[in-house]
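Sample A.
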Amino acid sequence: MAAEHRRPVEPDAAPTVAHHTAHHAASAEQPSGPQAEQHPEQHSDQQQPTGGRPAQQQDDAPDPNRWKALVICLLGGGIVLLDVSIVNVALQSISSGLSGATPEAVQWILSGYALAFGLLLVPGGRLGDAVGRRRMFVVGVALFTVASALCGFAPNGFVLVVARLVQGLAGGLLTPQVTALIQQLFRGKERGTAFGLFGATVGIATAIGPLVGGLLITAFGTENGWRFVFFVNLPVGLVTILLAFRYLPTTPKAERGQKHDFDPVGIVLLGAAVVALLLPFVQSEQWKSNAKWWLVVAAVVFAVLFVLWERRYGRDHEPVVDLRLFRRRSFSLGVGLATVYFAGFTPLFFVLTLALQSGLQYSALLAGVASVPFAIGSGIASTVGGRIVHRFGRQLIVVGTVLVLIGLGAVIWVVAEHYGPDLGWWLVLPLLVAGIGSGLTISPNQTLTLSEVPVQQGGSAGGLIQVGARVGSAIGIAAVGSVFYSSLASTKGDYSQGLPLGLGVSLVFVAAALVAGIVDVVVGKVRGTEASV
C-alpha cells in the first residue's frame, strides 16, 4: 500500500496479543534483499523505539511520561519563540538605556538572532537524530539560558549583538528537537493533539511577546527594563533543564553506539544557502545598496550545489537531508505552505507594534495588550485544531487561512477608518478572528507535514519546516516593511496609510497559502490520497 494511503497505528488502541501476532506474521512475510529496502520508511514508525526501553516494549505501550515530556518541550520551545517577538517592544528601551546601541547595532539585535536561528535548524535537527534528542535539547536550553544572561548583563551594543547571535544558534539547536520528540513520543490522534498544543505555544508566544516585554519595561523602567526581557529566560531555562533529565526519553539502547554520517559538506552548503538568502531580507532597511540582492543569486547557486551533493552523497552515506522526503506531497506542500503563511503572519505584529508605539504613542505595555486577542484565539484554536485534524485533514487549514484573510482584511479596514487613540479597542475582534484562523493553520499543517516522515528523520524534517518558516518570516517582514516605510516616507509619517498598505502585502502571502491548501485538497480528492494523520 502506498505511503499516502497509510494511517499510523495507535499504540494505545492495539491489544497486546493481537499486536504480537501481527508483528510475527509481518516478520515472517517480510521480503529480504533489495526489494525490502526500497521503502524502508513504511515500517519506520514501528521500528523506532522510544525512551530507554527495548523496541518491543515501546511498541506495546506508549511512553507513560509522554505528556510530562511534552510540557518540558513546550517550555523550552516557548522561550525561544517568545524571544522572536518580545524584543520588538524593547528596542526603544535598548536604544536609550545601552551605550553603543547605534541604529545598526539595534538592527543586528533583531536580524542577527534570525540569521543564527535559521542557520542551525537543520544541522541541529540532524545532530538530535544522530546523537540523541534529549542531549541536544538540554544543550540547546543551557546555551540559550547562558546567552540570555549575557544579553541581560551586556555592557554595550557590541556585546549584546554577539550574545544575541549565540542565543539564535541555541534556538536553532533546540527547536527541531521539540518537533522530533513529539514525532517520537506520540502516534495517531495523540500526535495531532500534541502538535496542536505546540501550535498554541507558537501562536501565543509570538503574539504575547510584546505584552510580556511591555510589562517588564513598565515594571523596571525604560533605562534597564530591556535587561529583564532577557533575564526572564533564566528561571524558565533552569527549570526546563532539570525537568528534561527526569522526563525526556533517552537514546534507545538499540541505537546506542551506532555511527552516523554528519555530512559536513552538505551542512556547509545548506548553511551558506540559508544565510545568503536571509541576509538581504533581514538587512533590507539598513543595507540600502541593491548589490545585496546578488546574495539571493548566490543562495540559489548554493542550493543547487547542495541538492547535487546530497544526491551523490546519499548513494553510499547518510545525508543531512533525505531529499526523498520531498517526493511526499504532504511534506513538500506543507513546507511550502508554512513558508508563505509565515511570510504573511509574522509581519502583522512587527508593523502593528511600530504603528501603535511610534504613531499613536502607545506605551510598550499598551502595545503589547493589543496583541492579546490574537493570542487567545490562536491558543484555543490550535488546541482544538490538533484534536480534529485527523477528521478534516488539509481542509481544516483551508478554513484557517480563510479566517486569517478575513481577520487581516478587517484589520486593514479598521486602521483605515478608525485610526486614533481607540484603535486598540477596534482591533479586538479582527485580531481574535485572525488568531483563530492562525491556530487552525499552524498546528494542523505541522501535524500533516510530518505525518509520513519516518521517526528517525524527525529532527532534520522538523528543522526544514522551521527553516521554511524563518525564511518566510524574513521575506515577509522585508516586503511588508519596505511598503510600510516607503509609504511613511512619502506621506510624512502617516501611519493610517502606511499600515494598511503594508498589511495588504501580508494578505497576498496568506492568500498564497490558501491557494496551496486548496490545491492539495483538490488533488487529494481527485487521486484519492487526501493528507491524513
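Sample B, a different protein:
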Amino acid sequence: MSAPPPSAAPHLRRLLDLLAEDAPAEALGAVAARARTAGVPADGLAEVEAATATALRIRGALRQHRRRELQLTALFDTAGDLAASRDLDDVLKAIVRRARMLLGTDTAYLTLPDEEAGDTYMRVTDGSVSVLFQRLRLELGDGLGGLVAQTASPYATPDYRTDDRFRHTRNINAGVLDEGLVAILGVPLLLGSSRGGTGKVIGVLFAADRAPRVFSPDEVALLCSLAAHAAIAIDTARALADTRSALAELAGANAELAEANAAVRAHSAAMQRAEEAHDRLTDLVLRGGDVKDVAAAVAGLLDSPLTIHDPGGRPLAAVRPDGAGLAADSMDAGWLVETAEESRTGARAVHRDGRWICAVLAGQELLAGLVLHRRGRLDDSDRRLFERAAVVTGLLLLLRRTVAETENRIRGELITDLLTDAERDPAGLAERGRRLGIDLDRPHLLLVAEAGAREKLCAAALRYLFGGDIHGVSAEHAGAVVLLIDCGGDGADSGPGAGEAARAAAAQLGQLVQAPVTVAATGPARGARGLATAYAEAARCLRAMRVLGRTGEGACVDELGFLGVVLGNAQDVDGFVTATLGPLLRYDARRGTQLVRTLSAYFGSGGSLIRAKDELHVHVNTVVQRLDRIQVLLGRDWNEPDRALELQLALRLHLLSGADGA
C-alpha cells in the first residue's frame, strides 16, 4: 500500500506558532513554500495559502493596534507631565519631545511670537542638528507657520521646497535647507477669541521629516491635541506671572494693601482650583476613566447638571452634581452643531438658551459637545475648567474611537469571510465569532447601506455603532457597507424591527455623511448560513430600492414584498412601465385626465364599477366612459387575464416609484 499524501495540518499549526511568536512576514510566507516542497496535495496547499494570507492580515492589524496603543500612551504621559510640572520650559520641552515621538518624525519644534521685536522665534526644538535653524527668526506671515497663524488651521506639506501655498523667504529657506527638512506639519496653539470671533493664535507646533511624507488625519488630530495642552500650559504660566506681577505692584500701595492682597489671594485660589481640577481630570484619564467619569467630576466641581452629546445629538453621558444619573433626551443636531461650531471658531465656551456649550474637538473634527445646564454666568476659572474638560473628553473619545476602529477592522474580516463563503466552514466561523465577542447563533439584524461617498460611509457606520448603545459590527463588502446588529434577547420582541432599524440607520448615517444614505435590512437571522442568506435578501432589497428611486430611505424586505423579489434582479423597470402604461400616461399628461388612476381603482375593486366609482368619487357613467377610452388606447384585450396581470404589475410599480401623485 502506498503512503498517504502529506497533511496540511502541521503547516497550519506552524502558522499559528509563528503568529504567536510575532515572527516576520517572510517567515509566515515561507510556510506555503515548505508545504509545496513537502508534497502537500493541491486542496491542502490552497488551505495553507489561504491561512497564510489571513495570518498576514492579523499580524498587520495587531501591529497597527500596538502602534496606536504606544501613541496614546505617550499622549497620556504628556498629560501626566502637565499635571506634575509647573515649569513652563519643562512642559513645552516635554510636549515637543512627545510630538516627535508620537508622529515618528525626525524633528519637532515650537515657535512663539515676540511682541516686542514684532516677529516669531524658535522657543523649543527636539531632534534639530542645525544651529542656524535653532536660531531662526521669522517675520509674521512668512513660511508655513505664517499660513497656520493667519488661518488658525493646521497645514501640512509633503515637500516644503516645492509648495507655493505660503510665502518663501531667503532666511527661512536657508534654515530649512541647513536642517534638511522636507515634509512639515504645523498646527496652531489656540487660546481665547479675537474681535473677529476666531481663536487667538499664540504659537505654532511643528513636526517635520527629512524625507517626503504625507501626514494622515489621525496624525494631525494627535498633534492638535498636544497643541491644546501647550496652549493651556502657556496660558497658565502667563496667568501665574500676571498674578505675581499684580502682587508685586500692589505690595507698594500701603493704603490699598489689604484689599489688594485679598483680591490676589482670591485670584490665586481660583487659579489653584482650576489647576487642581485639571490635575484631577488628567488623573481620571491616566487611571482609565471614561467619558461618564469626566462628566461626573465636572458636574460636581461646577455644581450643575452636565450632558455630553455626539454630533448627531445622541447623549453619551448625563449626570447630576451629586454624581447620580440624569435622564437626557437626544438634542437637536442642527442646534448642537451650530452652537459647537461657534465654540470651535471662538476657541471658548458659549452661552445659549440657558446652557453653556463647549466643542470637543480632534483637530478640526467635532467629536462631541459638552453641555452645562446653568443659566447663570461662569467666572473665568470655572469657564477654563469647563473648557479644559472638553480637551480631556476629546482625548478619551479619540482613544475610544481608535480602539473601536482596530477591533471593528478585525471583526469586519470575519463578516467578510461569512458573506463570501459561509458554506465552507460554518462551525469555524462561529468559533471565530465567539473569540471576537460576536455570537453568530444569537439573532441579528443585517443592514446593507450605500452612499455616493463610500469612504465617509465606512467611518460614519463606525461612529453610528459605537456612538450609542448599539451592539454590532460593520464591514465594507461588494461596494456597500454591511452592519450586523445584535437584536438582544431572543430577537422576537427585543429592539426595533428590520424596517424601523433601516429607517433609523438611513437618517443618522445620512446626517453623519452629510449626503443621502440608502439602507436595506432583513432579519432577525442567526447562524452563519442564515446570516449569509439574510445578506443576499438585503442586497436584493437594496437593488429594488435603487430601481424604485428610493435613494436616502430605509426599508426592509417584507415591506417591498413580492415586488422586492422581482425588482431585485430587474434591469429596466421604467422601460416596462412606459411600454405597458405609456398610452394612458401620455393621454393623462396631455389632457389632464385620470385614466391611470381609474384603471388602478377598477382593478383594486375587483372589476366592480360601483366600488370603483365610490373610490373615485364620480358617477358610474364616468367610470364606463373612461374604461371605454382605456380600451381604445390599450386595445380590446386589456381586460384579458394575462394582459390584466401585466397592467396591474405596471400600475403597482408606477405607484411604488412615487411617479403617481396619488
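Observation for Sample B: The chain has a mean pLDDT of 79.
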